Amino acid sequence: EIVLTQSPGTLSLSPGERATLSCRASQSVSGNYLAWYQQKPGQAPRLLIYGASSRATGIPDRFSGSGSGTDFTLTISRLGPEDFAVYYCQQYGNARGTFGQGTKVEIK
Amino acid sequence: QVQLVESGGGVVQPGRSLRLSCAASGFTFSSYAMHWVRQAPGKGLEWVAVISYDGTYKYNADSVKGRFTISRDSSKNTLYLQMNSLRAEDTAVYYCARDYMNAFDIWGQGTVVTVSS
Question: Looking at residue B40, what is its pLDDT?
């Protein structure tokens, strides 16, 4: 099973700042099928990025994903007030899905 | 519009069974693989199970293997999760989600399962 480790655990930033979130896999992610989700309290997760770098439908272009193999990054170029939430990375391969433990982006 | 609606959650005693349902609408259900994902109170997301678009392959997480069974009825546009031998650690919000490029692009609102005596 591929273990995904996200860092940092918490990111304290101000609106308008740039956020950089990391996701490291214990082994290479098959086909770079790495996704990122945003989750707010009491809500279901929302897909932001799939295939490491493709934005999902309706996702603003301030969200971007990059990386390959075992190291992946989600970047939010300028944080809006609605972007403060928990972010998860996820992979699915070899009949197993796994999520990272999450990064909380909080208002500084 | 594209929608998934879960139902069937509730409070159940340890060792008992529960079946969750997920009703799909707004898309061709029989064309997509589907997943169950859960989230324990205050915790992160945990992948639970997957079923292929035609039901021919199914896989579970090790934590539920031998106890949970995923299935689908495309005539009813419905996904199921049969949960047997429930444990306290199965307490969570259970989400169904549609597969897109090995990601989960559509999620239901979740149904709460509480395992407690």
Answer: 98
